[in-house]
Amino acid sequence: MVSLEKNPTNVCYHCGLTADTQPIHSQDGKLFCCQGCLGAFRLIHGFGLASYYDRRSQGIVGMVVDAEKEKEVNAYDDPEFQKERVRDLPGGIKEAHLLLDGIHCAACVWLNEQILRRVPGVVDAQVNFANFRAIVRWDPEQTSLSQLILALGRVGYKAYPYDQAKVEQVNRNRDRALLGRLGVAAFGAANIMFIAVALYAGTFQGMAPSYRSFFHWVSLIVAMPVFFYSGSLFFQGAWRGLKAGHLTMDFSISLGAAVTFTASVVATILGSEKVYFDSVTVFIFVLLLGRYLESIARSKAAGAAERLTGFQPDTAQVIRNGQEQRIVLSEVRVDDEVVVRPGERIAVDGWVIQGQTTVDESMLTGETVPVVKFPGSTVAGGTVNVDGAIHVRVRRIGAETTMARIIAAVVAAQSGRNVIHTLADRIAGWFVAAVTLLAGITFTLWWYWDPTQALDNAVSLLIITCPCALGLATPAAMLVACGVATRMGVLIRDPDSLERLTKVRQVVLDKTGVVTEGKPKVTQYVPAPTAGIDRRQLLTKAASVERYSEHPLGRAVVRAFEEEHWGPFPDATRVKNQPGLGLAAWIDGHEIRVGRIEFVLGDNPDPAIFPPTFHTQQPTTWIACAEDGRFLGWLGLEDCVKSDARETVQFLKEKGMIVTLLSGDQQAAVTWTAAHIGAHAAIGGVLPETKSHVIATMQADGTRVVMVGDGINDAPALALADVGMAVASASDLSVQSSDMIILNPGLTPVTFTFTLAWATMRVIRGNLLFSLGYNALTIPLAMAGLVNPIVAAIAMPISSLVVVANALRLQRMVPTP
């Protein structure tokens, strides 16, 4: 219970009168509201939840809650329960993540944020539109976790402390319930449409009253489950909006459906010819179909950050008291010594104290070439130890590790980037209020002029101005755009991102895997002049040794040999791997060494043997090869730039956008690649959290930014960017943090997506103008009695068909890439 100002007298805080009958008390026995004011506030703000004002300070001082409900969630305030679920922030503020159940659309997200922010003591509340996770910060001196959950519950939303198992259960239940509603609506709409064909034909060609009445009653029976069960989703959303004091599109939809259905029921009972069951059922079915498709997409996005835990081992091998023992990761402490064997994932952040190896850090930097690690080098949890055993001194654990910071960055970025208040929904509140008022005026005027036409004209106005076209203006265009994009190799996970894409002025491209192919390839062969061998002999000797390596560079050499189809590898024996340096093996009685030049020839090689581009900025990795100490030559490997990268950058520049190349690779390599493709700027050597900081800096002046990435290291930046694009080869987290996925190879789909976004916004604006113009034209006609309900029922779906037909033009408006 929220703490209240002491009130020793029976004076109501709101009205200032003495409460002499059945006063309402807080748990500490202090009177704070009389029954009269409580009843009034419950009527205004919803049963069980009432905000009220101190008559002296005019500020919210408390909240009326149901005692039974408070007991149910009281356990959430237990310190032991909160130990793993609530964070302590500076200034005494607490933070918790809540899972919200009952959310069906963007407007619900906005309502939940507003409800939480109205609770006294709440500092901030943000809801993740991707998985409906709420991040709430509050002052424990003014409110509690249970009060936050109760505040949402009173309006009809269920909230739980965030738990991944609960997320999966809630998603399954929501999708199952939605699919059931969709199935009922589909069955009812299909059958009623068959009956409607006969009724429409009978209206113009004649039908016996007994048959018409029979069809009406059958339609009513079939429509009832659609209206009361399938349509309840919209009715619940409308009621929640009303409780929070807002008119949403759900209210507009519910009003139109309710009036149309009620008029049809009355007509059926009275034996009238005018019923509209077909319009009601089809309307509900189409909207439910859109909600279901959106729900499936949201379910796939839910828990993206939690999937990162798969990159971190559950256990670690530590040395304690001189003995190796495997313990669970939560028991590892700072300064522990952890043993990591070849092929294992490193479990903690720390530095190497013994051994030498190469570590695959592609999940952090995006670069495919492993990094050499030796005593004193730092390593990060989640990265892979490639080829040597090492001992690591633990430096960071828990929430301070690199992996934990990446997860936190993804969650925070997604929660701060909600598209929750579309243009159609902003219009809906005024639209519904205006139409309702006009319908009442129409009924009143016609009641005095011709009572027999009053109801028909009012119903005609509500039907013909039903927000079908307005409600479909944006979803129809987005649905078609998503279909067109999929056929062209772009999967759009968040349709709202198309609108944001049209406002982008800064494009950030990751280097490895986006601008480049993402895997090394042998591009240069430099046999030593004194070796007397050719390209084939050099590659054969190097590949015969490298086939025993797990290093990406070694695998690239082997692929180059296999692509030549020169036959089997020569047999090698006595293979020895020197982690971070290279490999040695004996072939036909000769020792072949392949790897770094200091490993192949020693510490002081002759400078004359280096290739001309060895010390340039061109991003080429050189592998040396020698036989019995005699230098044989060089193999040059590069991560090649994609063939359409330069063309894509040129297109973006012509559209007035600034293109930046961003990478965890060395600055010299990034600068060379940026110059090669024509990008405006190059930023290299950045870590995952640094990438998101770069994006935030670009956004600081209001610039809209699109990020194209692929690695786990790109996930925070993809989530924070106004639009995130992930290539098909991207990591799971990057895909789940993005708004769009590029399925086809190359960067041409990026230019196509921009073109599609611009065309989609033109179609949406056209749809909105048509729907508003349609209503502006039909409202005066309906008020004047020039439109009867039958014509209104026909005109309503026609207006929706026009909107859908206009959206279908996108299939021809956007050129194929």
Care to describe what's here?
This protein is 48% helix and 19% strand. The protein has 817 residues and is α+β, with helices and mostly antiparallel strands. A hairpin with a 6-residue loop joins strand 3 and strand 4. Helix 6 (164-205) packs antiparallel against helix 7 (209-230). The chain is elongated and about 110 Å long. The model is unreliable at 1-9, 13-32, 35-65 and 416-422 (pLDDT under 50).
Give descriptors for this structure:
817 residues; 7-stranded mixed beta sheet; elongated; disordered N terminus; alpha+beta; 6-stranded antiparallel beta sheet
Topology record:
Layout: E1 24-25, E2 31-33, H1 35-45, E3 50-53, E4 60-64, H2 67-73, H3 79-82, E5 86-88, E6 94-101, H4 106-118, E7 122-127, E8 133-138, H5 145-155, E9 158-161, H6 164-205, H7 209-230, H8 232-243, H9 249-270, H10 277-301, E10 315-320, E11 323-328, E12 337-340, E13 349-354, E14 357-360, H11 362-365, E15 371-373, E16 378-379, E17 384-385, E18 390-396, H12 402-415, H13 423-449, H14 451-464, H15 468-487, E19 490-492, H16 497-501, E20 504-510, H17 511-515, E21 521-527, H18 535-546, H19 552-564, E22 573-578, E23 582-587, E24 590-595, H20 597-601, E25 620-627, E26 630-638, H21 645-654, E27 658-662, H22 667-677, E28 681-683, H23 688-699, E29 704-709, H24 715-720, E30 723-727, H25 732-737, E31 740-742, H26 748-783, H27 789-808, H28 810-813
Parallel strand pairs: 20-27, 20-29, 27-28, 29-30, 30-31
Antiparallel strand pairs: 1-2, 3-4, 5-6, 6-8, 6-9, 7-8, 10-11, 10-12, 12-18, 13-16, 13-18, 14-15, 14-17, 19-31, 21-26, 22-23, 23-24, 24-25, 25-26
Helix pairs in contact: 6-7, 6-10, 7-9, 7-10, 8-9, 9-10, 9-13, 13-14, 14-26, 14-27, 15-26, 15-27, 18-19, 26-27
